[in-house]
Amino acid sequence: MAVPEEASLTLPTAPASVAPAGRHVRQTLEEWGMTGDTAPLDAVRLVAARRPAPD
Asked: What is the pLDDT, as a whole number, of residue 38?
């Protein structure tokens, strides 16, 4: 039975964390063989690119 893929990254809630979060998502998806421009992948990238709410 296959183990579901899982990844995590802990970053501070700050605007400077947006770029590293996006890189982590892109690199993880590539490692899992999930590349291309598909709606589900675009949605994941969009969520990762959201800026944190101001304090």
From this structure: 80
